[in-house]
Amino acid sequence: MLRIRHTDENPHEASEINVTPFIDVMLVLLVIFMVTAPLTTVNVPVDLPSSTEKPAPRPDDPVFLTVKADHNLALGEDNVAVEALTSALQQATKGDKEQRIFLRADKTVDYGTLMSVMDKLRAAGYLKVALVNLQGQEEGQEVKSSGPMGSGAQ
What we know:
3 helices
């Protein structure tokens, strides 16, 4: 009589873990993440509309606050210390806190420094702040300045 031995009757059972299903699942997840990762970015192509409006007219006596590349401040043409900014603004605006302050900053000034200056303006009571830029200039083009604001403010 023949006896058929089954593998579960073997006294030397293999105690190895079968990792093939685990590897299959990991490869499927890898492919899924590779496909979906580029879709989760915020880089959405948008064709923004252009404006044909002229920049707002400059006031007769604008107040310019400039943040220089070395993070020093200048009010108009005069250097001003951060501690004396409030009193210098009071003097320049003749106490009119409704007057717009034109804020200019060097390209190399970091965002934190610019926000710090804007916080100081807000603490001093000046809530109307216009950020000055050069209009009609491509990055790397030669800048042709037409006064202290360049070619316009936004």
